[in-house]
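Researcher: I'd like a structural prediction for the single chain below. Treat it as a standalone chain; there are no partners to consider.
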Amino acid sequence: MGGTFEGVKVANRGISGDTTRGMLWRLQDDVIALKPSAVVMLMGTNDLEEGAEAESIAANVRSIVTELKMHNPQMPIVLCQVFPSSAKAKRPAGKIKKINELYAAAVKGDPQVTLIETWTLFANEQGDAKVEEFPDLLHPNKVGYAKWAAALRPILATLEFLETTDDEFTLEPGFVSLFNGKDLTGWGFRIQKTLEKQESFDGKTASTDGRYVAKHGRIIVTTPPEGRRVQQMWTTNEFPTNFVLKLEFRATPNADSGVFIRQPQLQCRDYPLAGPYKMLEKYRAQDWNELVITVKDNIAHCACNGEVLEAAYKLPPTVAVTVAPIPNAPTTDQAPRLLRSSRGACHSG
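Model: Treating it as a single chain, here is the predicted structure.
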């Protein structure tokens, strides 16, 4: 994938057939000696062919992460789940899932490590690789590599290796922008039970917990170090009448987020994997999608890229908008809203 990310110098240190034990042994000379700005890790599948147990594989990965952190305590580490394969290739789904569970436990709570759900991205209903993406049920083809690169792109953008210039945005006539493109002015936290305003983020580029970040014309909902954490960010203004809300969003694999419209939550997720709208034909996985919510007389019509999500979503009579964590999504509209997120990363603009 060396030429996939324009402007990013990529050094592929993988060796065919290598194991986590081998990677740990050559880590200093092959990786750390290069003084990398970030490291993306995908490893563990070849260990299974050698008969290694999930616990020993995860232990090697923990040691690799530890050495990388010792080298540079600020260097971002992106850990990909082991890709699905097949029992025919001596890599049954159950064992791969066990390894991935141990990986998640090993880095849980570590803000230096971002875990990407790449097993979920590629697995079929049986938990195995798909022939159209992995012809030998082990190695990805061009389609598989492109899908992996798309999954990495939002993370690399959040880490500022990609998309480091401000998005150009022109406000549509008749709309009011809820986001100024520079900071979180107009947004804040509220007390969950009473919805009373708790904290304003006016003039700040990030929420106090670091979950919401304004960067390059986007509101970014970062991946929580603990893997899953529910958080909600609300507009400080309220919109008690009819309105149209437009936003664009981009979600990492299996990301779970949402937009609250006067209380009810419209799921705003990586729909093909996280649902509930899994049959959308125009959804662009790990790319930008447009969400349009039209509220009239306490009924919301919701669409993604022109496809109907909810034709008649019933709302209470007063309005507040909340945003839940989703990777990369821009927002423009006339309604109060809340962004909520629990898993994964999301960008909006």
